[in-house]
Amino acid sequence: MHLSRRNLLKTSGLALGAGFASPLLASAQAAKAARAPDRQSSTLIRLSLNENPYGPSPRVAEAIQRESTRFNRYADAAQAQQFTEQIAAFENLPAEQVVLGEILGLLGTYLAGEGGPGSEFLYSNPGYLALIDGAARLGGIGIPVPLNAQYENDLPALSQKINAKTRGIYLVNPHNPTGTVNEDEAFKQFLRDGSQHAVVVVDEAYLEYTADFAQRSAVSLVREGANILVFRTFDKIHGLAGLPIGYTLTPAPIAAALRKQGAGEAESLGRLNIAAAGAALSDTAQVAHSREAVAREREKWLAILRDLKLPHTAAQANFIFFDSGQPQPQLAAQLRAHGIDIGRPHPPFTNWARITIGLPEENLRAQQALRQVLS
């Protein structure tokens, strides 16, 4: 659950050295790195991990430069508290309800420990399983629930699975890998009802890619006092995959319990990670720019899928998901031969492929390659 000090040094990028001679140089280097091909495959374009190809706010490079004389120091409680208060103001919640860090695994372990061996955790299948895997460490049992016909979280089917053993309900909205978003009113009603029986965790890693993010966010229910947690990450739209950090908005008692488990400790988060995330959070214009740029490219992708008559989802995140008519590993191998990496399969959708939306020129190359492969 915690980053080790050695891993912290790696993820914080302490080998940046003279690359931070100025904010402009740092920003330019970051942009160049984001566009640089894989040296092991001279022209490989990576469209596999849902990264933001437009990169972070220029304020991030400036924040890292300000920390450049303190690379030898761990993050401290004062820095973490300042960041926590910044998030609290942004989310309109008390600081005591904010827990820093990418804590989904720790959260699953904590809930399973509270529920005991055999406690059940509902989730949509396929899906991102960090919380479910964390729960399994202490005997928690993941209960997969298939998506509905629109490839969304199947709320009625999830409701039917809730029983006395249910300790947690974990939903990703927009869903990963399908990119679909549940209808807002029905989704929030499910959250209210489900939270009467178990803790509900909503992973909103990709929600800021939707135009009506603020309205759709389940944080409004956290403000109401519901037994609901909302997870966010700076890895995606904020462009900080190289300095990973996130936070969870939670009822105060759960936040206190998680902190006792070590969640949110400043040293484990990393000085650069905190500084970068604070700078990114302050730049709402950069987030809007990424959202709009991705939306334009996403529509081009969906038009290509319609033209190729490939079944696909109504994705609203920074990736598309479609049925290629052949096993995903076969398609992935063919695209890789054309210099495009689309990553892993997502069973049970064996013929479906997820492609991250990249820069316009990267998307064009990938679209041309897809046409060639399928022809």
How does this model look, in words?
With 375 residues, this protein is an alpha/beta fold. The chain folds into 2 domains: 206 residues, 3-Layer(aba) Sandwich (Aspartate Aminotransferase, domain 2); 89 residues, Aspartate Aminotransferase, domain 1 (Alpha-Beta Complex). It contains 16 helices and 11 strands. Helix 2 crosses helix 3, helix 3 packs antiparallel against helix 13 and helix 5 packs parallel to helix 6. It starts with a helix and ends with a helix. The N terminus is likely disordered.
Short description:
With 375 residues, this protein is an alpha/beta fold.
How would you describe this structure in keywords?
single chain; 375 residues; alpha/beta; Aspartate Aminotransferase, domain 2; Aspartate Aminotransferase, domain 1; 2 domains; seven-stranded mixed beta sheet; two-stranded parallel sheet; 16 helices; 14% strand; disordered N terminus
Percent in strands:
5-15%
State the separation between the terminal residues, measured CA to CA: 46 Å
Helix content: 40-55%
Integer average pLDDT: 90
**Reading side by side through the largest sheet, how are the strands ordered?**
2-8-7-6-5-3-4
* Low-pLDDT stretches: 1-41
Q: How many structurally independent domains?
A: 2
- CATH topology (level 3) name of the largest domain: Aspartate Aminotransferase, domain 2
Name of the CATH homologous superfamily of the largest domain = Type I PLP-dependent aspartate aminotransferase-like (Major domain)
